[in-house]
Target: Hydroxyethylthiazole kinase
Amino acid sequence: MQPDLLPGPRAASVLYQLRSTPPLVHCMTNDVVQNFTANVLLAIGAAPAMVIEAEEAAQFAPVASALLINIGTLTSASRQAMLAAIHAANESDTPWVLDPVAVGALEFRTQFAREILALKPAAIRGNASEILALAGEHSAGRGVDSADDALSALPAALKLAQLTGAVVAVTGEEDYITDGENAWSVAGGGVLMTRVVGTGCALSAVVAACCSLPGSRLDNVAAACQFMKLAGEQAIAASRGPGSFVPAFLDALYGLKAEALA
Ligand SMILES: Nc1ncnc2c1ncn2[C@@H]1O[C@H](COP(=O)(O)OP(=O)(O)O)[C@@H](O)[C@H]1O
Ligand SMILES: Cc1ncsc1CCOP(=O)(O)O
Ligand SMILES: [Mg+2]
Model:
């Protein structure tokens, strides 16, 4: 399959919708990226809430617009809380998104991620090594960063999408987004995005926000990828390295214009 470039006007209209009805994203994410994820959601125009206790998470998932499950620092307790939140989300039709951080490299999280694939994620967003491993393919990943090329993981993304019904986004130098039938590609960004922690995790939170919006879920997830690519590119042009990239990136997300996407 040869993915087409996501048309700019589609991304522009998703940004417009997101800002007209700001989604409230229930984030169950890893300990490393909590603050950055919340700031990215606020900068783009969505709202974050980090609710992690099992009882509260099950209560909050139905209230939220979308739920993010990121297994970057999974523990036995967070595993139970995540399961409770996913079940509550499914009962109330709240879309939930999986970020399979470091799947393949470690047994406990790999088993958990495979188990919750049966619980109907709306979308899955990971780097190439994670998507390959989650699909049961050979992956060169050893930790949270990818050691594989995103295009090489597109067949695995297609397979996962067909197996689960989720829209799958595999990210890297270029991003590929598929519902198992059609695929978009999204270009842009830059390597500096991999020299700060949390860009992938924050993207998954933006994907969750976009999954709550009306319209084509495939287009909505691809638009989320496009927002991060364009803001990343603008931030790289305005910064001198990882330290100045982070504030420039938040500023670029905040200032992102539908016209620039279109
Ligand atoms: N080599 C690259 N060139 C341009 N953009 C990149 C590159 N690698 C990653 N990105 C971008 O950085 C963000 C995080 O993606 P990625 O590094 O794949 O996820 P993760 O942080 O989960 O490993 C995405 O927006 C992606 O498009
Ligand atoms: C470094 C690290 N360790 C466990 S989770 C995490 C953050 C990973 O962030 P990202 O996937 O966005 O690079
Ligand atoms: Mg990641």
The mean pLDDT is 97.
